[in-house]
Automatic annotation (TrEMBL), chain B:
GO terms for molecular function: ATP binding; ATP hydrolysis activity. The keyword Protein transport does not apply. It comes from the Bacteria. The lineage of its organism: Bacteria, Pseudomonadati, Pseudomonadota, Alphaproteobacteria, Rhodospirillales. This is Fe-S cluster assembly ATP-binding protein. Residues 2-246 form the ABC transporter domain. It holds the Pfam family ABC_tran. Belongs to the ABC transporter superfamily. Ycf16 family. Gene3D superfamilies: P-loop containing nucleotide triphosphate hydrolases (3.40.50.300).
Length: 494, 250
């Protein structure tokens, strides 16, 4: 059994024995009835005690959503989603009966974490151990189902004036900030899934870094999907005020589900003058079994606005999970001299489909963007890079460099590259390089003749192929990501 | 150490090896010489377990075990090493990462504990220094951007690290100028020991002036047609391979 399945199998085994280990815990889901209508939108807003303006915004989005059609241009194929067949709200009622320590957590589950190299303290948080939140170096805001239940290291951050909390809390405590920026990068009418998210988002993270502050630690969110049939609509908003810096990590695992689960998150980043936001993702959701059954639909809208001069937004993503990935983290380079970066590894195996890439919109003068996308396909998977580089008339001296590399393992998978380049300024310089390669038999034999098993050899070669991207990840993530890369391709050769 | 009996092998259905017999004792260095297309490289791939080389008859016993029953990586872990005629490039994977993974896989097979990063670095630095390789070379991606001589030295570094009991050197001299050849030969000679055997495959006598063999065999059209001492190499250099016939005659 491949490790990914094993992971999932173990997690499922644990979650099915609900009360024994308390992994899904005794938390009763406060569940909204199935289906989607204005009453559900009102229900969610009321549950969260939201101000009137936000409810209005949600309703506006919902009404707009009704007029929209699902996009069909991506190279992905899936049965029609019944949006009325999901619960749009599930909140834990109580957080009691969590495991008291790691000793009470299923050792098999811990072994999986171990395999991925997740630090002990983080394991505790992932396993929902009570009080595991007091950890150094990485501040974790664990999203449990749809509502944040643990926010750590808040105090230390507060001393610097940094706000790191759930978006629900931000709506209550910092309404002026939320109102100013929410929907300012991804408007409610943006696209089918983002609009749906605006109507029904339940929670997510909020970060505000004040002027001139360098965030002293990596901020990290572990997302997980726990209750059956619960669509996930996270909403993340990160604002880096003038001259500030923040590095944000997002990582996830999900237990096995028979039915496909929709995940339509929205992430908005705002960087003001001289601010830098580094956003890293390791996405390891359940990809479905080797026959393509099950798995998460990951339809995410991520966008960053470099509003200020000399601002910088850098996206790094390692996408190994989900049955379908539809994701284009983008940068709007509005401020003069602003910089956008996109580093991506997308691995697809078995029947996984990924249509992912980025958009770099150059508006300001001397704006620069770099795109490095690595796609790896194995089994019967299809992987597409779709990227847009748009240079607007006023973007004097704009520069873009794009590099797209695809690696194929076996002869039943596919890799596709769809670059769009639109330049309306004569001084702009746009470069695009693309390669497609297969793992060669020579490379495999060379490794095996040195004692490496075929799977280790594939892991090593693929990690080498992805190196330029993996080295962009913060240390905490890099090791985990390297192992994940190898694990997600187990069973892909021979 | 190694006993090859009546070895027949085919590639794509074509018989290349037609009954090879060869016994190599511990500490011995054997050279195999022969014209192009005689099966020299096929022999090295068959012994190291490359896919696509089918053994149709005969046996190979290595340290009392059936070598042919093992996968390529098992053979490597058991102590068989192939120095490649054309060492392969692996972009993005540093020499240190590659060798650490390989060494620890072999150590694991032998029931030895894995080396940690510090122990490993100390070891590889010492071995690389002996081969006149600098720190920069061991940090670079495996064989990427290496000159012909650097690639061969890199293979010998791998051999020094993995400490095999039986090493096959497949045309290690090809593409090397005289200085590079000396460096590589010095590296190989420093690894000669009473417990380690070698099979040196080459077209030319030149290499054998630096790596002096105990026995020389002539492989022609799938069979060993003559065996002798190191002086046989000199004789071949003078006379060529003509007396051993042509492919049609075999």
């Amino acid at each position: 059994m491949a490790a990914t399945e094993q992971t999932v199998e173990q997690v499922r085994a644990v979650t099915e024995q609900k009360y024994k280990y308390g992994f899904t815990t005794e938390i009763e889901s406060d569940l909204a009835p199935k289906g989607l209508n204005e009453d559900i939108v009102r229900f969610i807003s009321a549950k969260k005690g939201e101000p009137e303006w936000l409810l209005e915004w949600r309703l506006q989005a919902y009404r707009h959503w009704l007029t929209m059609e699902e996009p069909t241009w991506a190279m992905v194929d899936f049965p029609k989603i019944d949006y009325q067949d999901s619960h749009y709200y599930a909140a834990p009622k109580a957080a009691k009966d969590k495991p008291k320590s790691l000793d009470e957590v299923d050792p098999e589950l811990l072994a999986t974490y171990e395999k991925l190299g997740i630090p002990l303290k983080e394991q505790a948080i992932l396993a929902g151990v009570e009080g595991a939140g007091d950890m150094p170096a990485v501040a974790v805001d664990a999203v449990f189902d749809s509502v944040s239940v643990a926010t750590t290291f808040k105090k230390k951050l507060e001393e610097k004036g940094i706000i790191f909390c759930s978006i629900s809390e931000a709506i209550r405590e910092h309404p002026e900030l939320v109102r100013k920026y929410l929907g300012s990068v991804v408007p409610y009418s943006d696209n089918y899934y983002a609009t749906l998210n605006c109507a029904v988002f339940t929670d997510g993270s909020f970060v505000y870094i004040p002027k001139g502050v360098r965030c002293p630690m990596e901020l990290s969110t572990y997302f997980r999907i726990n209750a059956s049939n619960t669509g996930q609509f996270e909403r993340t908003l990160i604002i880096a005020d003038e001259g500030s810096y923040v590095s944000y990590l997002e990582g996830c695992t999900a237990p096995m589900r028979d039915e496909n689960q929709l995940h339509a998150a929205v992430v908005e980043l705002v960087a003001l003058d001289d601010a830098t936001i580094k956003y890293s993702t390791v996405q390891n959701w359940y990809p479905g079994d080797e026959n393509g059954k099950g798995g998460i639909y990951n339809f995410v809208t991520k966008r960053g606005a470099c509003r200020g001069r000399n601002s910088k937004i850098s996206w790094t993503q390692v996408e190994t999970g989900s049955a379908i990935t539809w994701k284009y983290p983008s940068c709007i380079l509005q401020g003069d001299n602003s910089v956008g970066e996109f580093y991506s590894v997308a691995i697809t195996n078995n029947y996984q489909q990924a249509d992912t890439g980025t958009k770099m919109i150059h508006i300001g003068k001397n704006t620069r963007s770099t795109i490095v996308a690595k796609g790896i396909s194995a089994g019967k998977a299809q992987s597409t890079y779709r990227g847009l580089v748009r240079i607007l008339p006023k973007a004097e001296g704009a520069r873009n460099y794009t590099q797209c590399d695809s690696l194929l393992i076996g002869d039943k998978c596919g890799a596709h590259t769809v670059p769009y380049i639109e330049s309306r300024n004569r001084t702009a310089r746009v470069e695009h390089e693309a390669t497609t390669a297969k793992i060669s038999e020579d490379q495999l034999f060379y490794c095996r003749a040195r004692g490496l098993s075929e799977e280790d050899a594939v892991g090593l070669i693929v990690n080498g192929f992805c190196r330029e991207v993996l080295k962009e990840l913060p240390m905490e993530f890099a090791v985990e990501a390297q192992k994940l890369v190898a694990i997600s391709l187990e069973g892909s050769v021979g | 150490m190694l006993e090859i009996k009546n070895l027949h092998a085919t590639v794509d259905g074509k018989e290349i090896l037609k009954g090879i017999n060869l016994t190599i004792n511990p500490g011995e260095v054997h050279a195999i010489m022969g014209p192009n297309g005689s099966g020299k490289s096929t022999l090295s791939y068959v012994l190291s377990g490359r896919d696509g080389y089918e053994v149709t008859e005969g046996s190979v016993t290595f340290q009392g075990k059936d070598l042919l029953a093992m996968e390529a990586e098992e053979r490597a872990a058991e102590g068989v090493f192939l120095a490649f005629q054309y060492p392969v490039e692996i972009p993005g994977v540093s020499n240190t990462t590659f060798l650490k993974t390989a060494l620890n896989a072999v150590r694991k097979h032998k029931g030895l504990p894995e080396l940690d990063a510090m122990q490993f670095l100390k070891l590889i630095r010492a071995k690389a220094k002996a081969l006149n390789m600098n720190d920069d070379m061991i940090k670079r991606a495996v064989n990427v951007g290496f000159s012909g001589g650097e690639k061969k030295r890199n293979d010998i570094l791998q051999m020094a690290m993995l400490e095999p009991s039986f090493a096959i050197l497949d045309e290690t001299d090809s593409g090397l100028d005289i200085d590079a050849l000396k460096l590589v030969a010095d590296g190989v000679n420093s690894l000669r020991s009473a417990e380690r055997s070698m099979l040196v495959i080459t077209h030319y006598q030149r290499l054998l002036s630096y790596i002096v063999p105990d026995h020389v065999h002539v492989l022609a059209y799938g069979k060993i047609v003559r065996s002798g001492g190191k002086e046989l190499a000199l004789e071949l250099e003078a006379k060529g391979y003509a007396e051993f016939g042509s492919p049609e005659a075999a």
